[in-house]
Specification:
The protein has 223 residues and is an all-alpha fold. Helices cover 66% and strands 0% of the residues. Helix 1 crosses helix 2. The protein starts with 33 loop residues before the first helix and ends in an 11-residue tail after the last helix. The N terminus and C terminus are likely disordered.
C-alpha cells in the first residue's frame, strides 16, 4: 500500500489572463517568471524569518505585488509552492543518504538524521511552509511534506514486514504515524536549539525502531 501522492491533490493555481506575460522586474526589466519569484521568496524567508509579507517578497523579487500575484498567486498558493519545492529537495537528499544504509535500522536512522539536518538548515523555510496557512488550506499544505516523507517510510516498512512474514498493509498508517512523531520532535528541537542532533536522532530512531522490529509469530527474527 502506498502513501497518498501529493501530486494527485488539488493544488492552488495562479491564473494569468491569456497572452499576458509574467511581468518584468522593476530593476532591470527581466521577465519575472514563477521560479524567479519563488526563489526570491525563499531567499527573503531564510534571511528575515517567517513573518515576511507578500509586499516584502515582491520587493525582494524586484516586482510589484500584482506581478507576484499573477506569477504565483495569493499567500496560500505561495506557501503551497514553497512547501512543494522544499519537500522535493528534502526527498532527494534524504533518499541519497538512505541509499547508503547498511541495514533497515540504519536506513531509518539516516532518514531521521537527514530530516532533522535539512529542517535545521532550512529552519525559517520549514517553519513557514508547515504553519504558513490557516483555514481550509492548512490540512492540505501540512500534509505535503508528510506525504513525501511518508512514502519513504512506507516503502521500507512494507518491504521489511513482507520479508519477515508480517502484514505489509500497516505501512501507510505506520508511516504517517512515524512522520507525525518526526515532525513534532523536529519542531521541539528547532525551538530548543541546544539539544544535540546526534542524541535526538538516536532517541527518536530507538523509539521508531522498537515498533518496526517486532517479531511476527512463527516468522524469522527481525534483525
Amino acid at each position: 500500500m502506498k502513501a497518498g501522492n501529493p501530486s494527485s491533490k488539488r493544488k492552488p493555481q495562479a491564473v494569468r489572463p491569456p497572452g499576458r506575460p509574467a511581468g518584468r522586474t522593476l530593476r532591470d526589466g527581466v521577465l519575472a517568471d514563477r521560479e524567479t519569484l519563488l526563489t526570491a521568496a525563499e531567499r527573503l524567508i531564510r534571511e528575515a524569518g517567517t513573518g515576511v509579507s507578500l509586499e516584502a517578497i515582491a520587493t525582494e523579487a524586484g516586482v510589484t505585488k500584482p506581478i507576484l500575484y499573477r506569477g504565483v498567486g495569493d499567500r496560500h498558493a505561495l506557501v503551497y509552492a514553497l512547501a512543494e519545492r522544499l519537500a522535493q529537495r528534502m526527498a532527494v537528499e534524504v533518499e541519497r543518504d538512505v541509499a547508503a544504509a547498511s541495514s533497515t535500522e540504519d536506513a531509518l536512522r539516516r532518514l531521521v538524521a537527514g530530516y532533522l539536518q535539512h529542517a535545521r538548515a532550512e529552519r525559517n523555510l520549514y517553519l513557514y511552509v508547515t504553519a504558513g496557512v490557516t483555514g481550509d488550506g492548512q490540512l492540505e499544505q501540512s500534509l505535503l511534506l508528510a506525504d513525501r516523507t511518508a512514502q519513504q517510510f512506507a516503502a521500507g516498512i512494507a518491504a521489511f514486514r513482507s520479508t519477515h512474514g508480517a502484514d505489509p498493509e500497516v505501512a501507510t498508517v505506520w508511516s504517517f504515524g512515524l512522520v507525525g512523531a518526526l515532525h513534532y520532535v523536529t519542531l521541539w528541537w528547532l525551538r530548543e536549539e541546544t539539544a544535540d542532533q546526534a542524541v535526538v536522532t538516536e532517541h527518536l530512531t530507538d523509539l521508531l525502531w522498537s515498533g518496526m522490529k517486532l517479531e511476527p509469530a512463527g516468522g524469522p527474527k527481525a534483525d
